[in-house]
Every structure is written in C-alpha cells, then in structure tokens.
Amino acid sequence: MLVFQRQANNFSIDSAKREVILSTGTLDTPKLLLLSGIGPADEIKDHEIPLIHNLPGVGKNLQDRLFLRLVTTRRPGGYHRTSYIDTPAALAEARKGWATHQSGSLSSYYLPQMIGYFKSGQVTESEEFRDLEESTRRMLKREGTPHFEIISHNPNAGPSVRSPEQYLAIAVALMNTQSTGTVTLASAHHSAAPSIDPKFLSHPFDCRLAIETVRGALEFLDLKCLKKDEVRLAAGPAECGDQEILDFVRQNAVSMWHPCGTCKMGPSSEPSTCVDSNFRVLGVQGFRVVDMSIAPILPR
Questions:
Q1: How confident is the model at residue 10 (pLDDT cuts 50, 70, 90)?
Q2: 173: buried, middle or exposed (CB in 10 Å: 19+, 13-18, 0-12)?
Q3: Which of 58, 91, 98, 228 has the smallest C-beta neighbourhood within 10 Å, fewest atoms?
Q4: Among the residues of 18-148, which ranges form H helices?
C-alpha cells in the first residue's frame, strides 16, 4: 500500500493495475525509495526498515550547480537598477502598479538580465584539469562545453549595498563540476526531511574552477563600458590570490537549485545505476522514476 499525506489528510493506494510512477524530485525520490526499503542495504537496516531491494546507488551521485554574486556600486547618474526602492513612496508605487495591472518596475524585475557562457584557458591548463580522467578532459575541451556562466544585471545585490546606493550585480555559476554528494535518511519517519550533503567544492577541480570563474567575472566587471561608472567592489574577494578567492567562494556561494542524479539512469552493469533507459527501477517490477533524480550528469 502507498500512503500519501497532505496536511491532515491521508490518501492511500492499495494496488496498481499496471505500474507505479514516482516523480517527487531529486531530494524526495531517494527519501521515498529508502523509506520503502529500496536502496543501500546498510542504510535501510540502520533505520530498521524492512529491505525490499538492495540498490546501492539510491541517494548517491547528488549533483548541483553552485553560484554566487559579485556586486559593484555605481556613480550617480549611471546605471540604476533599483530606482523603485530608493524611497518608501517609490516602493509603494511599484507595488501598486504590480498589484493593479501587473505593470511598472516590479513587472520587469528579472527581464534586463543577460546571460553568457564562457570557457577558461586557465582551467584547462591547470594541474587539477590534468588529473581528471581523459574522457572528462575531452568533454571539458569541447567547443560547446562551458566552464562558467555569468548572469549580468541581477536584481538582487544581497546585504552588500544600502539604499540609495546604485549597484550592478552579476551572478556567476560553476559549470560541469565534479563533486558529488548524498541524500540519506535522517529518520525512518515519513515526515522528517532527508539529510542532504551536496559536498560542494570537495573535488580539487571544482576549487580550481571556482577560482578561475571568479577571476573571469572580475575581468568582465573591468570591461571599459562597465568600469567607467564603478565606485567600489561591494561584494567580492578582498584580494585576487587563489586562497582569498576560494575563501570568498566558500563563504558566499549557494546552490543554484538544479539538483539531479540521486537515482541515476545507466547500464545495469554499473553498481551505481538505479533505473534503466526506460526509467524502470532495477530489481523492482512495475515501478518507474521520472524526474531529474535519474539524470546521471547535471545538464548544461
């Protein structure tokens, strides 16, 4: 029997005529599988859950994208992203326009952003790159494979800027990282959140990638068209040495909310595979998973 709970109501399914399809996402799908007794045998037994099928890859291979913001303040009369919050009256007017007609400053909150994808010669020339497997090096060198992403004119500057300062914020994201994390049970109770450990920056290559990504973003901010109106770097590393940049990343980077891989698709010969190419859970009849947990790598 499958039992679903929504607020105070329970919904149960006694049986399925053909198949059960699970689609609860990268974080909840492994949790539900583990609670159902499908996953690494030792983890399931630790919570005194009856083992249905030993599937070692469930909850492993968690991949996610890491990003952070760099912010510069701008001279008066330059680019002004936040005029609608300069005064309480301006903010009230912006809220009124959105509430009444879905128009005004808040209607274009994210629209002025521009996104670019970049490669870094410093990354592919690094010792950390040379230590990767040959197939991974080939992938990272392909023309269409980005190393990092820049999203310029981001509306959120965080706590680094205080009104009425004008600012330019850019978000930078690491692409094709190599670190993998886990999703495990924190409790055998269905209402308990799972234990999530993304293990960001646990791979040496990702640390090098983070350093060169921030350097590339700082070079972007130094472009003449942007530099001419800059007053100060409000959010960024204090110095440009490797350790200073890496410390800044560790203190400020967060998930970009693109997790995948915790119930990955692959050949049955690989111990970490959870579903086949038809989304069927290995070793369990009439059961498929159809969400981003099955993606074996983080899509670009």
A1: low
A2: buried
A3: 228
A4: 25-35, 41-46, 88-101, 121-124, 127-130, 134-141
The phi-psi region of residue 39 (left if phi > 0; otherwise alpha if psi is between -120 and 50; otherwise beta) is: left
Mark residue 95 as left, alpha or beta (left: phi above 0; alpha: psi -120 to 50; beta: remaining).
alpha
Instruction: Specify whether the CB–CB gap between 171 and 157 falls below 8 A.
Output: no
CA distance 276 to 281: 7
Neighbours of 277 (CB within 10 A): 9
The separation between the first and the last C-alpha atoms of the chain, rounded to the nearest angstrom, is 38
pLDDT mean across residues, the chain: 91
Question: What is the sign, positive or negative, of the torsion defined by CA atoms of 42, 47, 50, 55?
Answer: negative
- Residue labelled with tokens 């940049």: 245
Residue 141 CA to residue 136 CA, distance in Å, equals 9
Q: Is the pTM of this model over 0.85?
A: yes
